[in-house]
Design brief:
Blueprint: H1 3-9, H2 12-17, H3 26-30, H4 32-36, H5 41-50, H6 53-60, H7 73-77, H8 84-98, H9 105-108, H10 110-124, H11 142-150, H12 152-158, H13 176-189, H14 191-208, H15 213-222
Bound molecules: iron/sulfur cluster (2 copies).
Length: about 240
Amino acid sequence: MGKLYDELCKDYRFKEGMHTCINCGTCTAICPAAEFYKYDPRKIVDMVQRGSDEEIEALLKSDTIWYCGECMSCVTRCPRKNGPGLVVMALRDLSTRLGYFTESEKGRQLYPLTRRLAENILRFGYCVHPDSLNYEDHLESGPVFEWVLNNKKEVYGRLGAQYGKEGPGALRKMPQKDLDELKAIFDVTGGTERMEWVYKHSEAKAAEWGMTPEQYDRYTFEHCSRGHFNTEGENL
Ligand code: SF4
Ligand code: SF4
């Protein structure tokens, strides 16, 4: 077994999710991601259990590990008590730590996602908050959404939300002590460190491509090539 396999073995998700795979394909049959993407959890588990560094490195640098929705449907059905979704979580973590995620399009999207969703959790206490949204980033939502964003206070007030105010209710302003607690949870659970890995490796990739972090963020946020879905031609 190679060094990357040994690294995976240190991850509790891998220990829990990786036993002997008999290649039955039940996980793939139940997997909602396999329905849409060129994605096959059976192949991932089979490839990982061979323990080849070369194959695991290729996986860590591929789009494949970013297709999983982490729904864990596979965990409930595997006759060998494997958890392909847990194996994928361990692969994602290792890919993020080593910076291999910057070698695939779906992996590179970790940068805009972290800058938006993870930062939103720390700033607002919500992964998506209307104050973090720009209409220009979500043109597909149409002009009504633009109008809503320009009239948030009135719209959310009419809907009974607690937008921008403290106290119970949807969209309430989180007290600073709760935000501090969230940050402490990120710190002790490894979330902060993982965000740092994403920023460090993504900004190195941006520099390699001759882009500023802002340009790289915009590019990875907007750029999505064809070839990821089952209904399209061969994935490259
Ligand atoms: S956790 Fe991932 S691999 Fe497992 S069923 Fe859900 S999407 Fe598929
Ligand atoms: S269901 Fe379990 S044993 Fe069957 S292919 Fe998937 S991981 Fe392997």
